[in-house]
Amino acid sequence: MNVVFLTHAFPRHAADPVGSFVLRLAVLLRDEGITVHVVAPGAPGVPASDTIEGVPVTRFRYAPRSLETLAYTGTMMTQVKESRPALAALGGLVAADAWAAYRVIGRHDAELLHAHWWFPGGFAGAMASKFRGVPQVTTLHGSDIAAAKMNALATRGFRHVLGSSARVTTVSRWLADEATALVPGVEPVIAPMPVDPSLFSPGEGAPPRDRLLFVGKLNEQKGIAHLLRALAQMRAKPTLGIVIGPGSDEVPMRQLAAQLGIEPQLTWHALMPQAALANIYRATTALVAPMIGEGLGLIAVEAALCGLPVVAADSGGLRDVVADGKTGMLVPPADPAALAAALDALLARPDQGAALGAAGRRLALETFAPRAVAKRYAEIYRAAIEVSRRS
């Protein structure tokens, strides 16, 4: 079976962590007899066609190079809200995406199109799949719901994409519930993305003590400000590593840390390749994931595979990853005092949560095992093609 992936986030080179889970799925599907060709936006210094880990990639231009800033930065919606040129570039991206998908489907005789995120890929894919007469599978990853609720026009677009998709998948139960609330009648299949357990694995010996970690964009939704305030309220004085996600403005959070008097406890890390991030996990006691409305929280899965307990907000898809009291702790979202209390309780344990982390690894292996994920998506593709043939 030949399948085309549409995505606005995909590694620009072998070590790039952006959209690495999409690449991982494409690679794993080979064992199911499925060949994937990826269509993604262009970027400065990135070739128009490439092969990464044996997966062919076609990248399309969608605006003058100075305006091709929408993809790979995690700031697409912000740029569009604040800039008319960015809004124009977004229109170019959708049109170019649809045209590139149309061409690649024909060139590679694809039987199915798999759009990652309903917008822009799902919206563009709905046009390409209709004209090519192939079914579309649309996967919701996380930011999809916020984008769908942005305004009435976005909600209509969301309903159009889901309604025209042969199958809709979500990476968490929370996302499935949110999608169903917006589009009554849709029946999403919960099918998470794979994580590589050979890369994300525990270190040797006893885990380090009193070292916390945050990984993500420095914005309100990711909850970094709540974490910094919690750190200032803790009885314990752990260190906190912060791996900065793409599209972040560091200045406000550095200023907040200075105001709270916790700057000496912090270590700031730039975005890094997956292998380097795995080493950071192994040098950490616990991951803190205070995200609000997170689609799933793959960082929590990665940390669990490395044997870390996860202290997370009781929100969104993180509930699918963290079993409260069994693999980590869930705390009320946007509540620094509750987060501080939970972290103090964890670090006060003799093992600082190592037993929780071991249980979390077992759960992650059961839920996000690569072969099981690939098999699930292969079944979804075959069902979508069969439905399309009957209609």
Commentary on this structure:
- With 391 residues, this protein is α/β, with parallel strands linked by helices.
- The protein folds into 2 domains: 2-194 and 369-390, Rossmann fold, CATH 3.40.50.2000; 211-368, Glycogen Phosphorylase B (Rossmann fold), CATH 3.40.50.
- It is built from 15 helices and 14 strands.
- It has helices spanning 20-28, 76-82, 84-107, 118-132, 144-148, 152-164, 173-182, 224-233, 250-260, 274-282, 298-305, 318-321, 336-348, 354-368, 370-390, and strands spanning 2-6, 35-41, 49-52, 55-60, 112-116, 136-140, 167-170, 189-190, 211-216, 239-244, 266-269, 286-289, 310-313, 328-331.
- The protein has an 8-stranded mixed beta sheet, with helices on both faces. Strands 11-10-9-12-13-14 form a 6-stranded parallel beta sheet, sandwiched between helices.
- The model has no long low-confidence stretch (mean pLDDT 95).
